[in-house]
Fold DnaJ homolog subfamily A member 2.
Amino acid sequence: MVVDTKLYDLLEVSPNASINDIKKQYKKLARQFHPDKAGAEFEEKFKEISVAYEVLSDPEKREMYDRYGEKGLSEGGFGGGMEDILSHIFGHGGGHGGFFGGMGGFGSFGMGGSSRRSQKRKGEDTVHPLKVTLEDLYNGKLVNLKLKKKIICTSCKGTGGKGNAVQRCSSCNGNGIKVSFQQLAPGMVQQIQKVCSDCNGEGEVIDAKNRCKKCLGKKVCDETKILEVQVDKGMKDSQKITFHNEGDQQPGIESGDVIIVLKQVEHPRFKRKGNDLYLKLTIGLTEALCGFVIPIQHLDNRELLVTSSAGKVIEPDSTRVLLNEGMPHYRSPFDKGHMFVSFDIIFPQNNYLELEKLKLLESILPPRAKVTDIDMTREDVQEVMLSSYDASMDNGSSNQREAYHQDDDGDDDGHGPHGQGMSCAQQ
């Protein structure tokens, strides 16, 4: 009687399938879901298929699985570095003395068989954000980061106690999970798994009398460590700096990494795009027409004298470039991007000059554009004057028309706003 059919379902074969049928189906699915062909998102699917084939192609393992399901694989000593994948298939967590004795790492599988390589299971990575300024990324910086981590207890060497203090949990047989079976119908059995309440899923219990006094049986202690984080010139926002095996320690598990993620704070003057810098300057009309020298402080505290020669006109919203004054390239700091400078030009206020001086200025400036002679006596010609723009006018001409009619309705003598507006337009 087959207790669990999950592995058969993965290979899409029936529990009565022959070894040849299983091999053929595995080759078909392995070609279909291999990450090199189907993409990296199918890597876990490919691993699950390979684990299913590893069990069902071996007569002894298949018989154990058919009789007892996952529990049979556990007590039969099967593992071979596949705990994490099988944990994923059967829906329970790995580690903590789980079903396969803490063995980790997934073996590499061929098309016609399998091969395993022992690999120590690795713990989770620890991610820390690190705020940096644009100046830090331009000049480089050494940051001392205080990190709290767990280390293996030096008193008990990670055993949790002395002598025979640590023992296998008798309730779950060291698995950390209790397995029970419920018959749903003749020939159909449902497997039920629960975390062992006696050991809290650890798979082992520690005698309170012999428990380590330093770690209180937890096997690990807290420690504060200082990491020297080198922010290199040219690094970018969200770039990662990895400290291998500096994560939390746990007995029997390779420590994870500490990953520092750079988070650049917004700069008040400069914007960065790739290796280029962008700066906006505001100048007057005199500077735009007659040239200027404007000092700006760079990210390395150099003072750059941004110069525009007399006679070189700066147009509104135009952009100029300062070559090789951008960000240094990462790992090639002597190569730099460019700095792009865009300009806002402030024009004089209305009536800033008397009429006579305006005429003098006009004589100096380039001549006006020529306008074709127009007969002002024609009925289809009307002179209109420009007015100052108000953002409230964006509500649409319909609102203006409503206001126009409302005012007109309230004034019967013909000298209200309507009459005034017409008179102004004719002037």
About this structure: Residues 77-82, 92-118, 410-427 have pLDDT under 50 and may be disordered. The radius of gyration is 39 Å. The chain is about 25% helix and 25% strand. The first helix runs from residue 6 to 11.
